Amino acid sequence: MTSKNNDTGKDALLNSLNSPGSLRSEFLLTIQTREAQKLVAGRRVEIADPLHQSTRQVEHIMGLPSFGKRMSGLWVAAQYDDPYADWYLLQIETALNAAKNAIAEKSKELSQLLGNVDAIKIKASHSISPIEFNLSFANPYGYQGAYLIAEFDALACAVMTAWHIGLVDRKPKREILASASKLIRRAFLLSTRWQFTGATRTAIRADEQTAQEAQIKMGILPQEILDLKQRAKIAPEIRSAHAFVLPTTSEGLSKLTTVPEYSFGNGAISNEVNLPTQGELGRSVGGKKQE
Predict the structure, then answer these.
(1) Is pLDDT of 135 > 70?
(2) What pLDDT was estimated at residue 95?
(3) Average pLDDT, the chain
(4) What is the pLDDT of residues 215-272, one digit of tens each?
(5) Alpha-carbon gap, residue 231 to 222, rounded angstroms
(6) Distance between CA atoms of 213 and 219, rounded to whole angstroms?
(7) Rounded distance between C-alpha atoms, residue 66 and residue 244, angstroms
(8) How far apart are CA 204 and CA 181, in angstroms?
(9) Quick check: helix, strand or coil at residue 27?
């Protein structure tokens, strides 16, 4: 009887305590080369805005912050049983892995090239003033993109070293860097092809209007995706149908992804993704401009 009362008391104590807050981690990405820096920042261009009689900046090439933000929407939608989001998670995971394998293979070739002469020990070049980025993403794919850029950065250092000491000439140097960066950008770009539809697997099986509209917008869904026979290895657990109400618009979905996505240096972290300006790209973590 005493044991039962003690158990009841413990349960009451646990229920009275506040639950732990959300887990957060710090992620610092150090960049050595300008080529990798461009992959982080992306590229923005100015276009005319006749409506406001001015110009505005748009992202011409997607960078890491925008990729992480878009992947947050995909992640949440997949969690809420959107099969199209699941489909694109699989495609993006495949593209990221293909880029990773290509970079690893080329890095291995360069490592062997740099180590061919026993009498000479060559270490890959490093920047005397690397740039550091504080990153925070609401999904694993943002970090996967950061890891990939870090591996590309190491490859770029090895390529520059081999070129500097005359082991490769200008043409293969350009080809290696261009092909590797293109694979990363292609993976990032895949995230823009997914559109929020509000359709779930239940709606598709019932042939509801949202499912019909989703098919018009996104195309025919592979059956193995619909049947959950094929998913990305890194994919969220699908929640019970009673655990959520899926937003009916992409604006509603964006409210669910409020975890800060990206910050540069020691600046304040915002829920909005603001791409760094060219001037900000020259600052260190301490906020001082790198020479």
Answers:
(1) yes
(2) 97
(3) 79
(4) 999 999 999 999 999 999 999 999 865 555 555 555 555 554 443 333 434 332 233 3
(5) 11
(6) 10
(7) 26
(8) 37
(9) strand
Question: Who has greater pLDDT, 140 or 251?
Answer: 140
Residue 227 one-letter amino acid: D
Residue 265, CB-side half-sphere exposure with 13 Å CA sphere: 17
CB 161 within 8 A of CB 92: no
| H-run or E-run covering 43 | strand 43-49
- Residue 69's pLDDT is 93
Helix runs in the chain, H state only: 2-16, 34-41, 64-79, 83-114, 140-164, 170-190, 201-205, 209-218, 223-226, 250-254
Residues 6+ apart with CB under 8 A from 198: 82, 210, 214, 246, 247, 248, 249
CB 133 within 8 A of CB 264: yes
